[in-house]
Amino acid sequence: MNLSDNKQLRMHNQCISESLFELPEQVVSWLALCKLKITPAKWAVALRSNNLTNSLLDQDFAEGKILRTHVLRPTWQLVTPADIGWMLQLSAQRVHEQMAHWYRSSGLDNAVFKKTNAIITKVLRGGNHLTRFEIGSMFKHSIIGFELNNLQLAFIMLHAELNGVVCSGALKGKEHTYALLEERAPKTIKLTRDEALAELTKRYFASHGPATVKDYAWWSSLSVAEVKRGIEIVASQLNHETLAGHDYWFINSDDNKPASKSAIYLLPNFDEYIIGYTDRSAIFDAAYAQGLDARHNPLFQHTIVIDGQIMGTWKRKLKKGKVVVAAKPFVKLLSSQQELLVKAVARYGKFVDLPAELVMENIQH
User: Fold this and answer.
1) How many Å apart are CA 94 and CA 226, to the nearest integer?
2) Of 50, 56, 10, nearest to 27 (Cα)?
3) E-strand spans in the chain?
4) Each residue of 272-312: pLDDT tens digit?
5) Cα 127 from Cα 109, distance rounded (Å)
6) Three-state DSSP class for residue 67
7) Among 78, 110, 261, 357, which is 20 to 30 Å from 188 by CA?
8) Is 337 in contact with 328 (CB distance < 8 Å)?
9) CB 327 within 8 A of CB 356
């Protein structure tokens, strides 16, 4: 295995270069996608499946086939109702530990959480789906002892998610809502801790491999000891190779190796292809960092990926009767690459069910 193989395998295993699934919940179960905002989240799923549109995904979110919650890390993740229980069981305590300082500095403790969880359960009982601020209006000063600010309210809801009290409900207009987890996902799978650890380990290295122990620990919030324990449990199902002094684990067999072909993809921000690993040097040349925003990190922007390499950024703007995609490549594209970019933009237009127009902005280098 070399660096090129590494990128090809990751693109393949993440279902970017080859869509393995028809249903969005299959993609989510395979990857446990990390997404901060709902629109890029839906595109990340559609990019990895066949013929999915924004409206179809809206329906899946509304029906609870895909849930959005805090699990694995203190960030939003997409998970399925079947998986949410055992994933929370495995990672919630670690995420609570990461959040402990923020809880304390915000004046929140177990006594407050006990009161707020009881109120949340009461107001959502019976299939109610309420926004964060609708729920927050129920937390009276007389009950919890103080008035809540927005940050405290966000931490209370995150804590309730990690404790398996709530998960995402159906959208209310453009606003996210919360619903009781026990009502939204009554058939969640129950596993022992070792079973859950084995399942997450297999899924990570199947969907993200080749990857390192450090990558998996970052992605999962598990300790390095737990990561190594997971690898030990499923070692017979994993392949292992050393590249540039780093040990990589993956599940592909030689007869399942993806074919090399030139391709361009429009990835959303916080895409798993970038956020799923600690070391991004193999897919992004730091010489192009000045072509990004002030943070100089490709994670925060929608990226143009050419043959596995981040080679530009893009933005979309909805206009009357069309979607305009403004592309900023880092270098001048070959004519063949321009044709591939046009196809990638057309695919995005199909997703939002609008004709797509490509606008090339100034080359950044």
Assistant:
1) 11
2) 50
3) 67-70, 76-79, 166-168, 178-180, 239-243, 246-250, 264-267, 303-306, 309-319, 322-329, 356-360
4) 999 999 999 889 999 999 889 889 999 999 999 999 999 99
5) 28
6) strand
7) 110
8) no
9) no
Distances (CA, A) of 57 to 9, 47, 52, 216: 27, 12, 7, 28
- Report the chain's terminal Cα–Cα distance, integer Å: 31
From the list 14, 11, 12, the residue with the least C-alpha distance to 28 is 14
| Residues 53, 353 contacting (CB under 8 angstroms) | yes
List Cβ neighbours of 82 (8 Å cut-off, separation of 6 or more): 29, 185, 187, 188, 189
53-86: per-residue pLDDT in tens? 999 999 999 999 999 999 999 999 999 999 999 9
Q: What is the spatial distance between Cα 356 and Cα 348, in angstroms, rounded to a whole number? A: 7
Distances (CA, A) of 28 to 150, 203, 351, 360: 30, 11, 17, 32
Q: Which domains does the chain have, with CATH numbers?
A: 3-184 (no CATH), 194-256 (1.10.10.10), 264-360 (no CATH)
Distances (CA, A) of 252 to 3, 207, 219, 248, 309: 16, 10, 20, 12, 21
Q: List all residues 6 or more positions away from 284 whose beta carbon is below 8 Å from its beta carbon.
A: 274, 298, 309, 310
**Which tokens is 295 given?**
């943070």
1 falls in which pLDDT band (50, 70, 90)?
low
Residue 363 gets the label, from left (phi > 0), alpha (psi -120 to 50) or beta, of beta
Q: Of 337, 340, 336, 332, whose CA–CA distance to 361 is shortest?
A: 332
Three-class SS of residue 236?
helix
Residue 150 tokens, joined:
């927005």
In angstroms and rounded to an integer, the radius of gyration of the C-alpha atoms of the chain is 21
C-alpha 77 chain-centroid distance: 5
Instruction: Express as a percent the part of the chain with pLDDT over 90.
Output: 80
321 Ramachandran zone, left/alpha/beta (phi>0; psi -120 to 50): left
